[in-house]
Amino acid sequence: MNYYIFTFGCQMNVSDSLWLDRSLQAMGLKPCNVEEEADIFLINTCSVREKPEHKIYSLLGRLQEYIREKPHVFAGVGGCVAQQVGMGFLERFSFVRLVFGTDGLVMVPECIRRLLEDRHLKISLLDFQDHYPERPECWPDSSPAQAFVNIMQGCDNFCAYCIVPYTRGSQKSRSSQNILNECFELVSRGCKEITLLGQNVNSYGQDKNGSEISFAELLKRVAGLPGLERLRFTTSHPKDIDREVIRAFGELPALCPHLHLPLQSGSDRILASMGRRYTSGDYTHIVDCLRTSCPDIALTTDLIVGFPGEKDADFQRTMDLVEKVGFDSSFSFKYSDRPGVPAEKMHPKIPDEIKADRLDRLQSLQGSLTRDRLAQRVGQEEMVLIESQSKKQGPPGTVSWTGRDPGGRLVHVHLPRDRDCTGEVLRVAIVRAHKHSLSGEVVTC
Ligand code: 5AD
Ligand code: SF4
Predict the structure, then answer these.
(1) What are the pLDDT digits (tens) for 258-312?
(2) Which of 53, 96, 293, 297 could form a disulfide with 257 if both were Cys (CB 3.0 to 4.6 A apart)?
(3) pLDDT score of 310
(4) Could you say which ligand is closest to the alpha carbon of residue 48?
(5) Helices (H), 42-86
């Protein structure tokens, strides 16, 4: 039996899919890279914005056509859209025989075994748990150089535009001992870089499941694991980032100098109606503290344009703040209504052409900031963790590889053709800046 996993959305979904992949392989099922060879499709979905949600429906429509000829093939739909649409998928698409939310993921491998045994069965795993659902691991002999480790699930913030608290449930922190055990197992199998994941990692431990330690203490303990070269975390909420975490950027050598800190808007009026619970002044204060603690820190962010009621002057405040902070890069989105969230009922809605124009202006400002920030790296030496081969053409006899520097910037290097460098950390002299990346030459191999 072959399976094929589609993954949409955030790094938490990528991490969930990787766990599913390891678990299904341990059951004796085979992953495949070609859709035509699959007997089971698993689709891990995202509904944070309207666009990714539409993609799920067009994928299911395409699979329905294809599966018509192969009645034994079936699909499972998981993640945020599954949590939202639920049984609707089972009713609307006969080939969908499993729906699962994020808390139900842990039971998916066992359910697939049951679905293979009984061809008439359909299963729904949509209940929320009141604690972090711990996932059994089947450790392979070696680990990839980079790994994700979940530290929590869900979110209690209820930002006015966001569907996540409804699709991923309330915040549930994982026990620090289980987190540390997983990190230890990964590092002892060769993992060099760990990214701690959660919807709002800065409030780790502050839920009814509690935790005996704070997020800053967790960072210290993970960063202290012998052999771990790099530690990252995402995502942070500005209202919850505390002094200890900011200080950690200057104190923990393994903690990479990069923070993704979603700003969403530069207007205090819009931030208040988004329910973000910080002001533009609070945000710039955090940035100043971060740069005092770690002058070289790379800052990236998320921004929404066209939130209900956003006036030109509000948008201008976002532009001004983006320029003032000088983000290394940002993800920016046109606001879209999500079903059931408070902003759905907020007015006036902003016409799409105004949203598109604002997005355009914001992205071109970010483009020039990114170019400036990248140009500042030329002439420096960076340690680059190589991730994969790239499509870029190198000189004859060489292959182009892509990796990331500690700040998270993409770096391209050319290396002799016969060498697989995946997972190696190389010292690279940066020689050129491009629109979104850097190129360099390897100093030591
Ligand atoms: N519309 C547009 N963007 C959104 N995001 C979350 N919800 C919405 C929405 N309804 C963006 C935010 C968040 C990122 C993951 O997606 O910027 O940080
Ligand atoms: Fe959504 Fe806000 Fe929670 Fe982030 S902090 S997941 S934006 S509700």
Answers:
(1) 999 999 999 999 999 999 999 999 999 999 999 999 999 999 999 999 999 999 9
(2) 297
(3) 98
(4) 1
(5) 50-67, 80-85
Which residue's alpha carbon is at the smallest distance from atom 14 of ligand 1? 302
Mean pLDDT of the chain: 95
pLDDT of residue 330: 98
Burial degree of 122 (CB within 10 A; 0-12, 13-18, 19+)? middle
Of 12, 48, 271, 301, the one to substitute when testing ligand 1's pocket (max ligand atoms within 8 A of C-beta) is: 48
Query: Which domains, from first to last, does the chain contain?
Result: 2-125 (3.40.50.12160), 146-373 (3.80.30.20), 381-444 (2.40.50.140)
How is residue 445 written in tokens? 């191999």
> Atom 2, ligand 2: which residue's CA is nearest?
159
**What DSSP element (H or E) covers 79?**
strand 74-79
Handedness of CA 179, 184, 189, 192 (dihedral sign): positive
Residue 51, pLDDT score: 81
pLDDT above 80: residue 417? no
Averaged over 89-95, what is the pLDDT?
93
Residues with CB under 6 A from ligand 1: 48-49, 161-162, 262, 264, 302, 304, 333, 335-336, 338
User: Which long-range CB contacts under 8 A does 388-391 form with residues at least 24 apart?
Assistant: 388/422
